[in-house]
Each structure stands twice: as C-alpha cells, then as structure tokens.
Amino acid sequence: MKRFCHACGTEQALDATFCEECGETLRPPRSAAGAAAQIASAPASAPAPSAGAPSARPGRQRRPWTPKTLALVAAAAVLVLGGGGAAWWALAPRDATEAELREGLKDWLATDAKKQLNRPCLSNFDYAKSPVYIDAGNQQAVDWLTALTQAELYTGPDPVVQQGLFGARLLRYEKTPKAAQFVSGRQLCAASTLGLESLKFDPKAVLKHEGQRIQPGTARILWADRADWSLVAPFKSEFDGQFSTEERAVRWIAQDQGWRALTQAEQEAAQAKLPRGGHQDQGTDDDGVSLWGRLSGLFSGLTGGTPESVAEAAFRAQQDCDPKRFSEYFREPSITQEVMQTQMTMYCAIQARSADKGDKIASLKSTRVGHAGDKVRVRLDVTFASGKTDSQVLIVEKIDGRWWSRLNL
User: Fold this and answer.
1) Which helix (H) or strand (E) is 14 found in, with range?
2) Average pLDDT of the chain to the nearest whole number
3) According to the model, what pLDDT value does residue 235 have?
4) Euclidean distance between the first and final Cα of the chain, in Å?
C-alpha cells in the first residue's frame, strides 16, 4: 500500500511523520479501505516534465515556530540588546560628580593650592632664633614674649645680667618643642593645611582639549587647621584677616578612575599650546563664542590664572613692550583691545628713549596686599639686572570669569 502527502502529493514512506518534500505533517495511516479512499483522492500525477525543464513542484515549507521557540529567541534578543546597552553605558563618558571632583582636589590642596594662597604667618619677630634675649625695659617685646610663653610656644623668662659698666638686665626665652610645628623660617604660622569649603561647577560645561575632557569650576578654600593659641589675644587680631575664604579657579582632567585637578605647570603647558594667531577662523560654539576663546579662558594666565600670576605676566609684557601679549592680561571695559594696543605702542616708544631701556627683570615677587570683592591689590617687588629695584601696586579684577590687570599706562 502506498502513501502520499495530502498537501503536495509526493509519495511517502508508511512510517513517515512529515513530508520530506514540503515538511507538512502527515496524516496517520488509515485502514485498507481508508487507504484506498486516500489513493483515490490523491491528485493525479502531473505529466513528466520535459528534459531540462524546471520542476513544477512547490518549494519546501518550514515547520511553524512553537511558542517555546519564540520565547527562546525573544530571550536571546533581550540578552544581546541588554548587553550592548550595558556596554555602551559603561564606556560612555559620564558627567563629573561633586564627590569625584572633591576627591580629585586632595593632591592639589596639599601642593599646588598652597602656592596660590598666602599662609597665615607673622613676621614681626625672628622666630628662627632660640634662645632670644630681650631687654627688660622693652615693655612691648616683653608683653609679646609673655603671650608666647602663655601659648606654650616659649619658656621663660630667665633673668640675665649683662656684665659691664652699663650692664643691662636681659630676659632669656627659649622655644618649646610645640613651637617647631608652627615656625617656618623666621615666621610664626597658625595653620598649614588647606581645606575645601565648597565647589561650583557645571557638569555640562566640559570641554575637550587634545582628546581629553576638561571640567572647569571654582573651589572655595581656606586654611582649615587654625591653631588654638591664635584664637586668643593678642594673636587673634593679628590672624583674623588671614583666615578668610578664597575662591580659586580649578580645572579637572578626566582619568580612568575619576577626575584629577590640573597642576599649575600643566595649565601653563596647555596655555602654551593654544594658537596665538588666526583664532578667529577656528569656529564658534552655540553661544557664538570662539572655541579659541573658550580654551583660552579655560587656561587663563600662563601661571594658572591667579591675581598674582596675571599681575606678573602683565608687568613682564609691559616691560618687554609686547602690546599683543600685554592685551592677553590687561583689560579696560571702557576701551577696545585695539585702542589699548595703540596706547601700549605709544608707551613703548617713550620707554625706548628712556635711560632704563634694555634693563631686564632679574627677579619679580608678587604679594597680595588687599582685596574687595572681585578686585585684588597685588604688590610687585622687582629687581632689575642693573641692580635697580622698584615696587608697584596693581589692581587685578575678575571680569567674565577670569582675572585681568587694570594697570594704567
């Protein structure tokens, strides 16, 4: 007895379950009478195709997917998409968090920031000497050493009678071991560790510089370990003005593990790589600000953008008679940069005819001597190669987020 597929008419083995030609599920074999009926109802055989003619039989059909197969395929798709999404999330740059930026400031606070902030110290006495001898008749000095003794920084007094015709009565004082942690050179300092009060930054303001991500921001810092003895008279009035909170511009660089604050030397190197000319053609951002301007502001000042460094750079540019370089540190809102450069050129022409022309700077020291809001007074003590010395006080002001010298020519 022969058996045929009810779908395509192909002859099948008696024990077959699926059609080998089209894949259709075969009906179970019937009795002899049923088989005869199946044979009778089988489609008539098509005439044999001619040689070389393509087969007229329909193509092979696939088994339909079961619910279990569909579930397995869906699960695999979810795993692939989920794994890809997780990989993208892990590799995509993330915004900086305050915790990461605080962690990245620790080394900067311990080293670089101390170069920008004046340590709270007194220099009214030579604290490097020990023992010291004070004339008992010098009441002001005796009162001061008495206060140092009460603060347990010195011991004494031990009376000493100076030999001679006019032998004076001297008082001998000596430093205690406790004083060692507060004496720096000839100064007496009331703190040595900088702390962070607060941060201000915009996570969306990250800039790219040479393929690296830079996060600009500001940090409010202060001397955090003020000595107890500096909180009582007569020291309190001497130190109170030196413990105010200062705001400093900070630049963090993204690393594999969080963020790290750039050092002053790194900011100098980044500033030096910025283009010096033709920057107008380097494109603008969505706010219409040139990309060069953004990067220049990011690394403002060749020495980190502090009031002291900007004052020094402006003074050096003035002495070198470089109007273009001077315009990078000097700003006067009432005049344009072109007018400022013209005035600087005239100043240099006058300087060229002076007796001091060609006298180079041998050393330059800047000291912050006062501030009010965004204005800082910086004293510059300069020594020239000829041995001549000079001192100037410059006004440095924060304008549009960076420090500019307000030097009058």
Assistant:
1) none
2) 75
3) 93
4) 119
- Phi and psi of 25, rounded to 5°? -70, 125
Instruction: Decide: helix, strand or coil at residue 78.
Output: helix
Of 254, 253, 278, 277, the closest CA to residue 267 belongs to: 253
Cβ atoms 14, 1 nearer than 8 A = yes
**Beta-strand (E) ranges in 224-270?**
246-254, 259-261
Integer CA distances (angstroms), 25 to 19, 28, 60, in order: 6, 9, 13
SS3 60: coil
In three-state secondary structure terms, 382 is strand
pLDDT for position 352: 62
**Six-digit token string for 140:** 């002001």
Would you state the pLDDT for residue 244? 83
Q: What is the pLDDT of residues 206-263, one digit of tens each?
A: 888 777 888 888 899 999 999 999 999 999 988 887 888 888 888 899 988 889 999 8
Q: What is the mean pLDDT of residues 265-284?
A: 54
153, burial (CB in 10 Å: exposed 0-12, middle 13-18, buried 19+): buried
Other C-beta atoms lying within 10 Å of the C-beta of residue 402: 18
Structure-token match 């996570």, residue found: 203
φ, ψ of residue 105 to 5 degrees: the values are -95, -10
The closest of 219, 218, 225, 226 to 197, measured between CA atoms, is 219
Residue pLDDT, tens place only, 332-368: 766 676 676 676 677 676 666 555 556 778 888 888 8
The structure's pTM equals 0.49
Q: Which residues pair with 395 in a beta bridge?
A: 377
Task: Work out the number of other CB atoms within 10 angstroms of the CB of residue 103.
Answer: 15
- The residues, ordered by sequence, that sit 6+ positions from 25 with a Cβ below 8 Å of its Cβ are 17, 18, 19
Give the SS3 label for residue 178: helix
Q: How many CA atoms lie within 13 A of 251 on its CB side?
A: 27
Nearby residues of 252 by Cβ (< 8 Å), 6 or more positions away = 96, 101, 104, 214, 215, 217, 259, 260, 261, 262
- Computed over its alpha carbons, how large is the radius of gyration of the chain? 43
Instruction: Give the burial class of 14: count Cβ atoms within 10 A of its Cβ; 0-12 exposed, 13-18 middle, 19 or more buried.
Output: exposed
At 365 the three-state DSSP class reads strand
| Dist CA 3 CA 152 (whole Å) | 115
